[in-house]
């Protein structure tokens, strides 16, 4: 059992407030299997932000300018029209023809056999299904998306937190030798770091399954060659790899719930056993076929180019405020370190802007925010609001105080 520190935070709010707030920072040092626990300061009135079940969607609301959720603007018209065309079919159960069309499109896209594809009700379902492999010891490369921990812990797996530190590279990672499953995000949420295929490869061992969460991979580009998805392992045929993918981000289908995973036929068979009939609805199947098809992939590539350009603009403007991205970003969001980030977030919210607190990511804390990449026009609105927040609160929000804090 990994150590947890518990704190009662009286008067925390607003919103649903857990009676006990768990703040955990567990550091696994390279070459050292020992862990050390670090207790971080808990600002008052912020308990909800530490809740492990909290997601970015709680940091936004209708009418708020959304820099909190990583879903791209959309969905695109060709997709909406394909879905609209099938509304009349919703009186029937999802058909074998739609299942085959979606599975074939995904298999073709990644150069895989249909027997290596499992369609999901969102990437999140993929993590839930991992419990069927009955892993004994799961190593989670952190900080990362919080769902794998939640569902695998609920399934009774032993969990080790392998916490990377700034700049969150896998270069010196030490994973416990007996971990029979490792879960890693690529690119990682919320750091936006894209690991190399070689680094992911270094996690492999006999008897171990490596699960790669590629929910945002279709938004990545090689900065030099411009190649799409430069580090993806989706096309890699191997008995020990599971690649989890989503179509909810790039295609703005978060409410539809659709994704897929790629693995060996033997793993797919184990994950499918006992699964309910009709796990995906007709519209989710149609969406998967369209997104994995030519038009969908041309759109994904165009989105990745827009993200790269808009991320560069966002990074420059944030740097002007003294808060450059904390790591080289490859996805549709950047991580920044801001003193008093929860207060900054709250003041931005008063100005109608939502950003994602990273207080509940293992290995991060209340001093990090995740900012979604948006158009330059919206970025200007964000930066203007940030500058207002800084101006009205010289210390402790300014760059100068940030630098002096670091010393
Ligand atoms: C890194 C990562 N993986 C997976 C998911 C889940 O994606 P889906 O909407 O396909 O379930 C998310 C959602 O936020 C995510 O951030």
From TrEMBL:
Gene3D superfamilies with a match to the protein in the record: Aspartate Aminotransferase, domain 1, Type I PLP-dependent aspartate aminotransferase-like (Major domain)
Coiled-coil spans in chain: none
Keywords: Aminotransferase, Pyridoxal phosphate, Transferase
Species of origin: Gordonia sihwensis NBRC 108236
Needed co-factor(s): pyridoxal 5'-phosphate
UniProt similarity note: Belongs to the class-I pyridoxal-phosphate-dependent aminotransferase family.
Molecular function per GO: pyridoxal phosphate binding; transaminase activity
Entry-linked InterPro entries: Aminotransferase_I/II_large, NHTrfase_class1_PyrdxlP-BS, PyrdxlP-dep_Trfase, PyrdxlP-dep_Trfase_major, PyrdxlP-dep_Trfase_small
Ranges of residues in domain Aminotransferase class I/classII large: 64-386
The protein's name in its UniProt record: Aminotransferase
Record bears the keyword Transferase: yes
Enzyme class: transferase
């Amino acid at each position: 059992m990994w150590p947890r520190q518990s704190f009662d935070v009286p008067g925390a709010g607003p919103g649903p407030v857990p009676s006990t707030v768990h703040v955990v920072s567990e550091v696994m040092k390279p070459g050292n299997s020992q862990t050390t626990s670090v207790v971080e300061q808990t600002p008052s009135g912020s308990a909800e932000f530490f809740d492990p079940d909290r997601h970015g969607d709680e940091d936004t609301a209708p009418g708020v300018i959304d820099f909190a959720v990583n879903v791209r603007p959309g969905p695109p018209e060709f997709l909406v029209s394909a879905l609209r065309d099938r509304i009349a079919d919703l009186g029937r159960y999802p058909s074998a023809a739609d299942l085959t069309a979606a599975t074939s499109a995904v298999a073709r896209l990644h150069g895989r056999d249909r027997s290596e594809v499992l369609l999901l009700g969102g990437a999140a379902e993929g993590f839930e299904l991992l419990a069927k492999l009955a892993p004994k010891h799961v190593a989670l490369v952190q900080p990362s998306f919080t769902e794998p921990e939640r569902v695998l812990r609920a399934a009774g797996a032993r969990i080790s937190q392998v916490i990377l530190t700034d700049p969150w590279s896998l270069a010196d990672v030490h994973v416990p030798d007996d971990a029979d499953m490792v879960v890693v995000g690529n690119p990682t949420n919320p750091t936006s770091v894209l690991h190399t295929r070689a680094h992911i490869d270094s996690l492999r061992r006999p008897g171990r399954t490596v699960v790669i969460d590629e929910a945002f991979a279709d938004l990545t580009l090689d900065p030099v060659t411009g190649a799409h998805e430069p580090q993806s392992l989706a096309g890699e045929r191997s008995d020990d790899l599971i690649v989890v993918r989503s179509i909810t981000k790039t295609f703005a289908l978060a409410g539809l719930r659709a994704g897929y995973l790629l693995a060996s036929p033997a793993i797919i068979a184990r994950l499918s056993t006992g699964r309910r009939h009709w796990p995906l609805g007709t519209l989710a199947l149609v969406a998967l076929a369209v997104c994995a098809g030519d038009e969908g992939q041309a759109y994904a590539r165009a989105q990745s180019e827009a993200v790269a350009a808009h991320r560069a603009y966002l990074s420059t403007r944030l740097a002007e405020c003294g808060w450059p991205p904390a790591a080289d970003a490859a996805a549709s969001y950047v991580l920044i370190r801001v003193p008093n980030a929860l207060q900054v977030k709250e003041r931005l919210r008063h100005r109608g802007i939502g950003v994602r607190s990273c207080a509940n990511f293992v290995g991060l804390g209340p001093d990090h925010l995740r900012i979604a990449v948006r158009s330059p026009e919206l970025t200007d609105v964000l930066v203007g609001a940030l500058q207002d927040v800084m101006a009205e609160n010289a210390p402790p929000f300014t760059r100068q105080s940030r630098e002096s804090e670091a010393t």
